[in-house]
């Protein structure tokens, strides 16, 4: 089971806060707010955050369906 989890993590693409902000077309501060509120999953690496790309897509999908 640990091997499959490691393989899964190796396939995850992590984005910087700036990349997420650009992708979502919002400010970096907005991304930081989403991360700190727990609305957007992220991993802390040193003093910075890395956001799994699939977490961004999942957040946008949920946000889009909530407004419909």
TrEMBL record:
Where is each Helix-turn-helix domain found? Answer: 14-62
Under Pfam families, the record lists:
HTH_17
Task: Report the protein name in the record.
Answer: Helix-turn-helix domain-containing protein
